[in-house]
Amino acid sequence: MLRQFLDQILDRSVVGSYTRAGFSMRSRWFKELPHDALDGKNVVVTGATSGIGRAAALALARLKARLILVGRDQGRGEETCDLAREQGAPASFLSCDLSEPDAVLDLAKRITNETDRIDVLINNAGLMADERVLDSRGLEMTFAVNTLAGFVLTAALSSRFEDSRVINVSSGGAYLSDAAIDDLQYETGVFDGVRAYARTKRQQILLSALWARALKDRARVFSMHPGWVDTPAVRNALPRFHKFTGPLLRSPAEGADTMVWLSATSGELQSGAFYCDREARPTHRVGWTKSSAADLRRLWLSCERLGGVQPEHRPRDEDFEAVTRME
Ligand SMILES: NC(=O)c1ccc[n+]([C@@H]2O[C@H](COP(=O)([O-])OP(=O)(O)OC[C@H]3O[C@@H](n4cnc5c(N)ncnc54)[C@H](OP(=O)(O)O)[C@@H]3O)[C@@H](O)[C@H]2O)c1
Known about the structure:
The protein has 327 residues and is of the alpha/beta class. The protein is built from 13 helices and eight strands. Residues 47, 49-53, 71-73, 76, 96-99, 124-127, 145, 169, 171, 225-226, 228-229, 231-234 line the site of NADP nicotinamide-adenine-dinucleotide phosphate (NAP).
């Protein structure tokens, strides 16, 4: 009771919740995962060359997962593999530029050449851009990496899911935006990297909830917020925020905690929900960030078209409606 009360106060305070203080308060109640919780499980982590993704890979290695790690930088990717192997976990690195949907489809083929079954897929790679950059197919980079790559990878790997888990690393930044479904490529107005980022993080939450319904017989799907974490992304994209909040930021391992827990816990989980610090959280703070069922359908169909995928499992009409009612 006291725990829930304190947790709610932290959640509403935002700063208290997302900083290291929030993690240290809440983690007192966390139960340690069994040391072999992921023994024999195949886990794919994107964005494992740096920051939260690397920290997650190492924590998953300690739980005995078999790791397939993805990123662009071969050297840093191999380094993460070496560190994971030091923990006794088999690990391989696949290099891929996730901003190119064709490269993501090719990555899915390379992953399925390595393994028949995917137990956990963590779509963690992400960025905040300071200018509007387009990929070779004219896709805006923030949308292509943060939203579309995870969608395409989930669709392309879904035939390998069996009682699996998909974790999409979103952000509390989503509370500041609707999904901007009419402007997925940020063609309208002056480009603002923070706004572009927040839109994609909102899209990830919505798509996670839709995938949770579409894949209900194969996988549970979650979105999550790692908190405010001291990583190269924050240092480079938000230097003033980093300077101001520096000592309050979480370590990458603290930021990775909830995604590792979602990967490994045997406790009850709410598929489709948005998690932070091992609890499902509200997905909206204000009404204007919500989308209609028609908008959600357009978002889904745009991702299919732009990603060049036709998923075997799709949300039904009532699933689009249900996601509009998410609090
Ligand atoms: N740090 C925070 O406070 C915070 C808060 C909320 C949410 N998040 C989310 O957490 C996730 C991880 O971020 P981080 O803070 O750990 O940042 P980071 O240290 O900069 O790591 C980003 C990762 O994404 C990969 N990546 C970026 N663009 C890519 C591309 N085009 N193709 C392939 N991989 C690409 C990078 O790989 P390469 O280095 O190999 O290119 C790197 O491994 C992101 O989704 C971010 O939005 C972070």
